[in-house]
Structure formats: structure tokens, C-alpha cells
Amino acid sequence: MSKIVIIEDTEKIREELKTFLIRYGYEAVAPINFENIINDTLKEEPNLILLDINLPIYDGYYICREIRKISDVPIIVVTSRDTEMDELMSMNLGADDFVTKPYNTQILLARIETILRRVQGSNIRDTLIYNDLKLNLSNGSVTYKGKVAELTKNEIKIITCLYKYKGKIVSRDDLMDFMWNADVFVDDNNLSVNVARLRKKLEGLGMQKNIETRRGLGYILP
Amino acid sequence: MSIKEYLKDRTVFLLINFTLYIIISGILLLININSKVILLTFCIWFFPILVYIMIEYVKQKLLYNELNHIMDHLDKKYLLTEIMKKPENIEGKLLYDVLRRANKDMHEHVNNYRDRENEYREYIETWVHEIKTPIASTRLIIENNQNDITRNIKEEVKKIEEYIEQVLYYSRSNNVSKDYLIKEVSLADLVKRVIKRNSRDFISKGIIIDIEAVEGTVYSDAKWLEFIVNQVIGNATKYNREHDGRVTISTDRNENNIVLTIEDNGIGIIDKDISRVFEKGFTGENGREFGKSTGLGLYLCKKLAEQLGLGLIITSKMGEGTRVKLIFPLGSVNLMH
Questions:
Q1: pLDDT confidence of B337, banded at 50, 70, 90?
Q2: Which residues of chain A are within 8 Å of residue B222 when distances are taken between CB atoms?
Q3: Where are the domains of chain B?
Q4: Do B183 and A84 touch (CB under 8 A)?
Q5: Is A20 in Cβ contact with B140 (below 8 Å)?
Q6: N or C: which end of chain B has fewer CB within 10 A?
Q7: In this predicted complex, what is the ipTM?
Q8: What domains does chain A contain, in order, with CATH numbers?
Q9: Is the model's pTM score more than 0.90?
Q10: What is the DSSP string of chain A?
Q11: Which tens digit of pLDDT belongs to each residue from B132-147?
């Protein structure tokens, strides 16, 4: 499990962000005391740091620079300052990414995921395994008991999303949001068609029990 | 200043001289002095006066011509006293000093307002950044407690964010240079970012989006561009039809510019309104009908586009749709590879 340290002085945001990240399967730590923030953070040995800029005692730029002197841990700067200048400044100080407050939480998650994947090597999330179904993200194919089928870009996105929340119902709206965030701008009808095709492909491989529709609620990969 | 005007100004002086001369010639005539002597007196009397008037005229003429010339070529007219030569005659000196004093006072006055405006602008900037913190926590709280109620709140929060962004860009729109940064911007990435921001509107209204033909890069400030494109795409979804709505975005490369075209098949803009859509506070028929218009969006777009050196053109047909073109001139700044 990846460990994320949240350096943020607004209590509400700190706590909610912690809850949010834990919900999405990360281990989240949010220090409250800022006097020894640099040492405290590094002691946690995080996989990633979310860093606010306006902080008591030391500002985020300073912290970023100091951490960089000691460690290569990925840092995402999260700030309400939103000009290109601020972005450039953060990058120059060694931050890996820059997200503007109030962030779109899905985008924040996507950025965290991207950076972690880059740092931890790409082998972790290249293949998704669900029961006997193997999804290869790098070449877009699924394998079920030795049989292989190619998926389209849209189908891959759908199954990735359902896989992420496996065992839970994903509403059409959430699925749509997920797709749009991944640059796939499908409309309502298209989504139904894509899901139907995907289901057919999986059935074609002999996987009888796959994506289920829960009327009025959404889809689920049981 | 013509010679006639100048002479007219000296009428009293000349009249007094003439009267004196006539009186004196009368006296001279009475005591039987030769009329030639009287004529000679005239010459001795009036020749120097005429010469004096001519010299003064030429001097003044030159001075005022120079002043006019400076004024015509001066960008900031109030700097006249800094540029002009200090006059040597007493009247000139007096006027010059008075002018300088008036100018100085005016400068202080203007500075006062400038300081106040800067202060206000800074306050707005700070305010915008402060308000973003509670909004960020609100969003996270919504995210952590998802249900129908919070989903509705999320929609409203998104609107608040849009209005706040407008405030920020409004306060910045008079002074773009302060925080802009030119870099390479991929138009496809830009358009995608904006579409994602508006994804809820596209999805809920079932608007089909076509961005196949968007390609290329330009050099500009990404944030400002995003604001402009966001306003335009926001309008394209807002003033769209209930069914079969479509937004098509494309780029064209011409010999000396790149054009980003955003086209919708929505309700369109009535002819009499189209020429005024960039006016501040203008809402028009559509604004009245939809009731959510501030009349600031396109005004700001135009203003920012001008500051960025971009063209912004809008054409529309009532009931058929609207087409907005953002034109990036291919110059030293907005180069494309």
C-alpha cells in the first residue's frame, strides 16, 4: 500500500483528504505540528507527498526545496495560487506535479496514480486480474482461460473502472465521469452500446458471469 | 496663431499710439511745422514699433509651434512640462511654473487612485485564494459523503467556482502582463481540459462532442486561454437545444494564422444582438430568456484575447447555431511547429 503524507494546515481539508485517500486504498498520514515538518515527514518514509504552499512557520516552497536536498520522494504541490508563474516556480523547486485548489478529486487521484506508477515501475498496474480473467493494459487484450480477445479503448476504460470498484455498484454517472476524465467523451447511448459489446466479448471468451446491470443503479463486476 | 489674431491682441496698444500720434501731429500742425517733419515723426515713431511687433510675433509663433509639435507627438500629453524648453520671458516662466504645479497635483491625484486600485485588486486576489480553501473542503466533504443531496450541492459549488474564477480574471484583465507566461500550449490538451471541466453539462444535456479535428500547438498563456475557451464552450452547452445538441471543435491552419473554431447547433443569437455580445453587461434576448447571464463572460473573453494578441470572432444564425473563432496570428509570439 502506498503511503501518502498530506502537508496541509487547514484542518477540514486535512481530515477530509485523509478520509478520501484512505477510501481509495492509500495509507494517509497528515501531520498536525509544523515545527519540524520536514523531519516528521521524512520519518514517515512516504511514497508521495501532497504539499500545500501557504503554511505556518515554513512555506511550501521552502519545504519542497529542503526535502529535495535529502530525498527524491515525489511531491505534488496543491495550492490555491493558480497562475502559470506559481506552477513554474513549484516545478523549479523540484515538485513533480501541481494541482490547483479546489481540485477535482478524480483528477487528483489520477495524478497521484500516474506519479506512483512512474516511480514504482510500470509492472504493478499493467495487468489486472479478476478471477480467471486477465486484462493486459499495455496491449489492450483480455485473456480468459487461454482465449484472447482485443478490446477497444472505450471497453478497456469501462472494465478498468468496474474492476477498480469490483463488488460495488458503479452508477452510470460515475462511470461516465471516469471515462470523461480519461479523455473518452462518450454520450449516454454510446456507453450502453460499449457496455453491451464488452459483455458480448467476454461471453464470447466463455465467461458467462461478467458485468451485471442493476436497473436504476448502474453496473457491477461482482 | 495668425498675424491677424496677434495684431488683434495688440489693438489697444496700437490705438493708443495712433491717438497720441494724431494729437501730437495736430499740435505740430498748429505751430506750423513742416508736414514732412510730421511724416518723418510718423516713421521714427512707428517703424520701431512695427519691427518690435514683428520680432515678438515670430518669437511667439515659434514657441507655440514647438509646443503644438510636442503635443502632437507626445504619447502621454501630461508630460509636456518635462519635455518643453523652459521659456525665458516672464509670462512664459509664470505659466510654466503654474503648469508644473498643476501637473504635480494631478500626478498625486492619479497615484492616489492607482494605489487604491492596486490595493483593491490585491484584496480581490487574496479573497479569491482564501475562498478557495473552504470550497476545497466542501468538495472533499461532498466526495466523502456521496448521495443525491451532495451531488446537487456539488453542481452548485461548481457554479460558485465559475463565478469566482470570473472575479479573478476580471480583476486581472486590466493588467495581463503581471502574471502571464507564454509557453507552448497543445490545443488538443487545452480543449480536452475544458471539456472535462464541463463534463457534467455535456453528459446531462446529452450533447455530442466532436474534437477530432483539433491539432497543433500555439504559444500563449495556458491559463488565460483556458479561461477564454471555457467561457465559449460553457456558452455552447448553456445555449444549446434539449435534444441532439452537438458541439464541434476544430482547428485550421492558414498561411498566417491558426484558427480554433468552436461551433454549436444551439439556439443561436438574434441578428440585432450579435454585434453587441462583447459589450460589458450586455445580455440580449438569450440572456433574458435563460436568465443566468451576467453579460461579463464574452466581454472578458474579448478583453483577454486582445491582451494576448488574439482575434475573437463570433457569428451566429438564429435557430441554427453559433460559431466562435479564436484566431492565433502566426507571428513571433504565437508560432506553431
A1: very low
A2: 84
A3: 176-329
A4: yes
A5: yes
A6: C
A7: 0.73
A8: 3-120 (3.40.50.2300), 127-220 (1.10.10.10)
A9: no
A10: --EEEEE---HHHHHHHHHHHHHTT-EEE-----TTHHHHHHHT--SEEEEESS-SSS-HHHHHHHHHHH----EEEEES--SHHHHHHHHHTT-SEEEESS--HHHHHHHHHHHHHHHH-TTSSSEEEETTEEEETTTTEEEETTEEEE--HHHHHHHHHHHHTTTSEE-HHHHHHHHHHTT----HHHHHHHHHHHHHHHHHTT--S--EEETTTEEE--
A11: 889 989 988 988 888 8
